[in-house]
What does this fold into?
Amino acid sequence: MLGLTASYGTLSSEDTNLMVFLDDININGSLTSIKPFFGYFYRDNRCVGLRLGYQYLNGGLDNLSLDLGEQNDISMNVGDIHLLNNSFSTALFHRSYLALDQKGQFGLFAEIEGSVQYGEGKFINGSGEDEKYTRSENLKLALGFNPGIAVYIFPSVCATVSVGLGGLRYTAINQFDEAGVKTGSRHASKMQFRINVADINFGLVVHLWNKKKMASR
It folds into this structure.
């Protein structure tokens, strides 16, 4: 089979009340990803495949005011900060389907995925007289679980919706200044299992050989 999953999400502070002591919040951002993949069914309802991916993150903090009150005598204002990040990924996955009806047109699937992601980001601070920025190189290794729903809209075309449930992650970040000199690094690993509303993907799958649909058990 051949397929494609894509996602797009936005973040805005217009309708959000974060804390009573945060005023004049203006945060915005978007996250876009596209992931084509190829899979081979080695038996009924069992598939292994390769997925490639591209992700683009664009976010900004135009203004943020912090006021803890006259008694604490602490207040500050930051703004004109932007974050850009481009990353590419490669992943191997295994997917298992389970039919919900006798005709095999509706079903669930469980997917386990091992991925490697590499990207470069730029953190831009334009609040001063001169615009300053730092650059980062990011490496992420992950083992994740992605369950979903599959619906055949045509005999050989299947629409899918999946959501990330987390898993194991390792991240390494190296930071550089404008001159290209390394200024720091950070390594982190974690294991987390929960529904991630920021990782909901809509997909379209084309089966190249229409021998069987999902076999009911």
User: Anything to note?
Assistant: The longest strand covers residues 75-99. Residues 15-22 have pLDDT under 50 and may be disordered. The beta strands are 2-12, 22-43, 46-67, 75-99, 106-125, 132-145, 148-154, 157-176, 182-206.
